[in-house]
C-alpha cells in the first residue's frame, strides 16, 4: 500500500502494535521486512503508520512473531481494513493534530473514562462554556480559530449522544462545577446539560466534593479509552505544553490505578446527581 499523506491515530496505533510484537521477538526490522519481500524502509513506514498494511501481511507478521493471541490478531486485522474517514478530518490543517487524534480514538473506543478537576469535561460542555474556556487561551485566539475549536468539541459529543453510544464515566470536582467560566446563565445551563446527560443510561458522572478528606489527586487529569482488546487501550494526559498519548501497558496500568484511587474520593452516581441538582438550584 502507498504511503499516506496524513497520519491517522488508528493507522499509527496499528503500526505501533506491529512494532511491539516484532521487538518482543528480538527481530530486527530488516529481518521482518525480508519475510514480506520488502525492505527496511517499507517496514519503517508500516510501523510508523505512514504506509498501510494488508490483512494478509498483518497475519503473516503475527505468525512470524509467534503471536498466539487470536483476539489481538483479529483486532489488528480489523484495523488494517478500516478505511473510516471521520468527521474530524474536516478539521485537518485547522486544529492541532492531537485534537483529531482524540476524536478519532474516542470514535473507535469501546468505553471512555475521564478525570477532570478544574473544568467540566469536554464531552459534557455546552457551546457557551467551551467558548469561554477556549477564549482564555494565551495567546488569545482569533475568531477564525476559536469557532472551529468550539464546533469540534461539540461534535465530539456524538460518541455519547448518538445511536451507537459509547459507555462514558467521568469524575469531576465540585470546584469545576462551581466556578463560573462566563456568567450565571452559562453556569446554570452547563449544570442542566450535565443533568440531562446523566439521564442517559450509559453516562455516569461522579463528583468529588470539596470537603472530601484524603483526596490528594488535585493534579489528576486523564482520558482512558478502551480498545477492542485490552492491549489496544489508549490513554491521554494533558500537560502544560502538550498532550501525551499513552499506549504501553505499564503507563496504562498507572492510569487505571489513578482512576480507581480518585474514584474512591467521589460520591456515588445517585448522590452526585443530587449534588449537581442542588448546585443548579442555588444559581
Write out key terms for the chains shown.
alpha/beta, six-stranded mixed beta sheet
Question: What does this molecule look like?
Answer:
The chain has 283 residues and is an alpha/beta fold. The protein is built from 13 helices and six strands. The protein has helices at residues 9-25, 29-35, 40-48, 55-64, 70-81, 97-108, 127-134, 143-156, 158-161, 174-178, 184-198, 249-263, 269-282; strands at residues 112-116, 168-173, 203-208, 222-225, 234-238, 243-246. The chain has a six-stranded mixed sheet, with helices on both faces. Strand 4 (222-225) and strand 5 (234-238) form a beta hairpin. Helix 1 packs across helix 3 (40-48), helix 2 (29-35) crosses helix 3 (40-48) and helix 11 runs antiparallel to helix 13. The longest helix is centred in the N-terminal third of the chain and has 17 residues, at 9-25. The radius of gyration is 21 Å and the shape is elongated. The model has no long low-confidence stretch (mean pLDDT 93).
